[in-house]
Each structure stands twice: as structure tokens, then as C-alpha cells.
Amino acid sequence: MATLPRPIKSTSDSSIVESGNDTRPRSDTPFDAGIISSSAWTEHLECYSLSDDEPEPADEHHEPQPVEEPVKAARALYNFEGKAEFKELAVGAGDELNILKEEAGDGWSLVRVSSGEIGLLPQTYYTCTTSFLSAPLAAHGRNEPSTSTITPKASLQHQSKPLSIVPQDTGEWTNPLPSFRQSLLRGKTLNRFSGFVTSGAEEWVLEGYVDPVTSSPSSSHQRISTEDSINDDNRLSRLGLGEADRHYVDAGPAWQSKVPKFRVLVHSPSKRTSGLSGAYTMYSVTSLFSSATDESYDPYIPPISPARITVQRRFSHFIVLHTSLTRRLPGIALPPLPEKQYAGRFSADFVEARRGELERYIGCIVRHPVARYAEVVTSFLGCENDADWKRIMPQLLSMPAAGPSFFAHVFHPAFNLDLDDATEVIDRFSRHTLAVGKSTQSLRNVFGHIREARLEMSKAERLLSYSLLSLVTSIPLSSTPLGINEDPGDTPQQRNGLLNEEGAWCWREGCQDCLKLTKAMQKTSDGLQIVADLYDDHARRTQLATHDAFKSVAHPYQLYEGIVETHQSTVSRYKDALKLGKVGTFTIFSNDEMAARCETVLNTTMAEMDTYHDQKVENFSTITREHLDGEIHFYEQVLHKLKAARRTFDAPRFDELSRSPRQPSRYERDLEAPKLNPPPLPQPCPHVYDSASMRPVNTVIHKGIGALLGKSQPGRKGSLLGRIWAE
């Protein structure tokens, strides 16, 4: 069915977040803030806090009681399959409704359908039909192509009250600290609304955007010519206040980059202590800006040292960055922030792992053509004064969510979309990202086995070294993993005839040939110990970095799921806006206003798909290249050590070995207790979207609970609590 623009509901009872004062609404719901027209959402948003204490959610399953208020006639906009156990209704698009209680809490309304059944329905899934007659209908037919604005403002000018921009749920963050509940849900929340709703795209498509300052409809969503979009002179002439909130789409569609790419390093972590927050880790964040371009590169001219800015940031500051970005850029896909750790967060391994995660996170942000010039990013990376940064942080958190204003400030070429192409591309994109995620998960598992195989190879090389040294020194190995148990009872008198006085592996005294052979084989044994160390170090450091890097490409569909939902819903609204037909007694004409706004959203989502394409090529190229470089460097080191051992058997080095007696190897002391059981390999920290099988902490918790319940140790009867009670 064709969908009419919905009337804008009054939000006089909602508070608006302004940068100058902290008037944000409070809530116990651990969700982020976004935009919809219902003011019920604003009554259940919590204030941002950097405290480690997460408030418990209120009872979400209370049954709302009907109150005495006028019954409003309404019509369902979309299909909704409610859950009977939560007293939710199942309605179809176009069904006639009676609104018994509009504000039932948390964005729900108490509704009666034509069959007489009463239940809950989301406020954004219906529109009141009493305002249909006052809504202006667009002219029949489509406008001719033009570079001027094709989104008339008439449908918005009839509103007597300006639209208030109020915080609302974006489905990922409100409390900056992720909870245990979010960990169990793999970084997801229980928000049932799609990204089309939570990003503000739905409100933009249905109602447009009214500037809260001027109380007039915004015309900044207008389509512009391709030449104007890509003309730097034309764009730079409009630079000024608020330019960071203006986003341009070139032909493609693809985001137009305002700021050249730069690199950000997170390094030099140090432990600090504060009287208020206790101990924490501080990281140095350095931005590197290169003035040279690829065209000006000359291999004979020394490279110019890039300009750099270094600031000090802690993990809670990254939370401020992420929270502000999700509110100000609801139309783009942002990487998830690493989860907060409460135990072992000052261990050297964890600090290094966290440093790498934060570097990948901020690196992904600054690689995005839109996110890297956001005001919050420039403040985060450029504010070197700690006092100024502490003053800026509350202002960043108190900025109102962008919602539909984000799409209102997207400029794109005129008539650059085809509906059939837009419908087909989202299906291919969804299938591709799902396949990439599944294959990458398998690749991560295989790479973990490869690292374990390298560790086993290290143990094998070390065992070979011990065995070779035991052979030429006649010192038996105490035990070996192959089940070969040597007799350790030999005494120096019993070893007479195994080694001569010069330590050569011979029963003859003064045998020069055996002395040279013994010393050359001992050097070979020492070289194999170094090779074993190289295998161990390669698996623990170089391959760990590659294993960890796979997280950045492991879950593309989960990352872009909101973009996919927004695109699919917008395509559906776009088709409705172009249709002719009837809904009940009302005639619906083609709606050019809504079609224009749909094209703006589709330009945004397709530009995000283009960004993923570019980043996928860059990410996998970088990971593969760094893996090959690491393997080449590793094998070159192994080859160097093996060649050095091989040269020992060639003249003149082999002949020089007979000039002095053999000195004991430093590894001989290990023959009585071979070091063949290295500590386990360090594993990458789990990704926010990882399943339970890839999150080792879940296994530990499961074993701990099993021990308490008596299920973790077969053969032992009774639980741990039961045995303690019995004792």
C-alpha cells in the first residue's frame, strides 16, 4: 500500500539535549540514543555515565492499564508480528485500529483491532487517520528531472509545532560500559526495532526534517547536480559553521572525502592512578599527517617526516568517542568498541591486546570518508590540553542525536539511482557479507590450528636438538614425549670409552676427526634450539597479530545489518511513493516528496556499501601482505640459522674445530629435565560479535558452574558445594 506522510506528534513533554546544559532524560534502559517521532522513547533513556556500575533495568513486562482518554482512529503502516506472551498484537499493513492509550511506555501504545482484540503495538507502526484530510496530497505524476529541489516543503509547512529532536534508541550503546547481558548476546541488545527506525531514516522518509532553530522545513536534503557535487570550488565556497555535518555523495554512489587519509597509532600504554577512579591505563594516540601525495613521490628524494599530533587517552575516552559518533552519524556503519574488562586488565598481555584493538578501532574510524572529519573525531585526536579535553567531553555527550537531520544534510547527484538496481544490489550485498563472515570465521579457526602446529614444530625441533646433543655427549635424556626412557644411572666411570679426555665423541684419545665432528654436531644442536625459539616466537607474536587482525573482517553482516535493514525498508517506501491506489476510502497519489527523501537514504546506504567494498579490499590485502611478510621473514631467519650450522662442516671452519677441546653446551643441563612443555599460546581477545565457541571465557564459566553442580569432572560424584557441606 502507499504510505502517506505521518503527522508529527507533539513532543512538548520531552526534554531536548542541548550542548550548554545537561537536561538529558534519564532511563534504566541500556540502549543508545537515536531519533523517532514518539516522545515515549525519551522518557526511558539513561544519562551517560563512565561509572563501572550499571543500573539494573526496570521491569519491562508490566501490563499497561488503559486510562480514560479519547479513542483515536488509526491505520497500521507495516506488518507487525507481535508475541502473545508479551500481549503484543499481530497486525497487517492497512488494518484499521483504535488507539486506546497512545503513551503506554517504552514507545508502545495500547491498541484495539477491528476484531476487538486489545494489545500493544509500537507507536511507529501506525498513523492516526484523523489527520489525513489535512495532509496535502502531492500532484499526480512525477516531476521532470531537474537540478533544483524536487522535495516541496508544503507538506511540512502545515505543521503548527516544530519537530523536536529528541534522543532515542540506536540499538547498541547508551551506558558506555557494556554489560554482562550484552556479552551473552554477542554485543547485541534486545531492541526489536530495525535500523530503519532507530537511525531516524523512517522519520526522515515519512515526515522530512524541520530545523528546530528556525522552525522551518530544511531544504538541505535537496538533490544537486553531479557537477556541483564533485566541484571542490563550489563546495569550498559553502564551507563554514556546520560544514562537518554536511556530507556529499559522488557518482557511484560513493562518499566524497573532504579530508585526506591519515594514520593513527595507539602506543606507549602506562598505568596511572586517580583518587576518584582508581587505577587505569593511559594510551598515547598519535595522528600522522603526510603532506606528500602518490603523484609527487620520488624514490631519490628522502621522504618528508609527517606532521604528528599526540594526545593521551584512556579507555573511557574511547567510550565517549564511540557514544558520540553513534549519535551524530546514525546513517553509517561504525565498528564496535572492544568490550570492557574488569579482571586482569593490567596484565602485560591484556594491555598489549587492548592497545591493538583500540588502534584497529580508531584506524577504521579515520579510514571512513565521513567519520574521519566528524567534530568528535577531530576533538578526540586534536585536543592536546587535558583540561580542555575534560571540558569538551560533557559537551560531546550532551549533543542531541542527529536522527533525520543526518539525512537532511546529505547532498547527492540528481537522479542517480535505479529502483531495480537498488533492489538487486542489497540482496547481493547481504549474501556476500554473510558468506564473507562465515568463511572468515572458519579461517580464524584454521589459523589457530596453524599456530598450534607451529608450537608443536617448536617442540619437535627442540626435542631433535636434545636428542642430537645427548648422542654426542652420551648424557641420556631423562624422558621424552615419544616414550623413550633412557637409563639415568650411568656414572662417569661407566661412561669411560664414550667420550675421550677432550670431550670428543670417541673411545680413542687425541682423535682429531671425532673432536671436529663432535663440536660441529654440538653447534648444530645449538642452532636447532634457536630454530625452535623462532618457531615459538613466531606463533606467539607475529602470527598472534595476524590472528587478531582477522577480527576486523570477521563480522561484516552484523556490522552492516542496520544499513541493510534501512536500505530494504527504504526501497519498500520508495515503491509505495511511486504507486497509485486506494487505502480504504482514501485515494493515494504518487508522492514525489517521499520519493526524493527515499533517494537520499538510498544514496547514503549505497555509499556505505561502496565504503565496505573499498575497506574489504584494503583490509584483506593488508592482512595477507603482512602474513606473507611475516612468513618470509620467519623462514629467512630459520634459513640463516640452518645455513650457519651447515657451514660448520665445510673447510676451513671444520678444520679449526680441532684446535681446542670441546666446551660443554649450555643446553646440556636441560638433558636431565628437557623443556618440552611450553606455556599455552596467547589467544586473541574475542570479538564483540563472536559466538560462544570462540569466546574462551564462556568455557571457563561453564566449567566453573559445572564444578559447583558436580558436572565437570566425570568419575567424581557429588558437587563441589555438596562435598564442602559434607566435610
From TrEMBL:
It comes from Suillus discolor. It comes from the Eukaryota. Pfam families: BAR_3_WASP_bdg, PX, SH3_1. Keywords: SH3 domain. This is PX-domain-containing protein. The keyword Magnesium does not apply. One of its GO terms (cellular component) is plasma membrane. GO terms for molecular function: phosphatidylinositol binding. Residues 69-131 form the SH3 domain. Residues 9-20 have a biased composition (Polar residues). Residues 1-35, 47-68, 653-683 are annotated as: Disordered. Residues 261-387 form the PX domain. Coiled coil: none annotated. One of its GO terms (biological process) is plasma membrane tubulation. Residues 58-68, 653-673 have a biased composition (Basic and acidic residues).
